[in-house]
């Protein structure tokens, strides 16, 4: 994972790897429905179940706003008060 370099980082690598691997793709037959590229699970608001738990774990590590920004960029959605 070249995008994650050596700077101090409180987020577990396994979580990041999950976030890297589990990405949505648009199905040809689903009329815009998304599926996970990695586990082929249906893609919900916060991704597949595996990614969702990774995001939850990651959120537990958020202690600062700057980290929150990093997370938002990494995960690809904003917190925005969503459940
Ligand atoms: Zn997945």
From TrEMBL:
**Designated name of the protein:** Uncharacterized protein
């Amino acid at each position: 994972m070249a995008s994650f370099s050596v700077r101090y980082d409180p987020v577990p690598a396994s979580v990041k790897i999950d976030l890297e691997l589990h990405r949505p793709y648009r199905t040809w037959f689903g009329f815009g429905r998304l599926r996970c590229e990695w586990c082929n699970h249906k893609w919900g608001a916060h991704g597949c179940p595996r990614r969702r738990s990774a995001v939850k774990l990651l959120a537990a590590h958020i202690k600062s706003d700057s980290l929150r920004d990093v997370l938002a960029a990494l995960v690809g959605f904003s917190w925005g008060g969503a459940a």
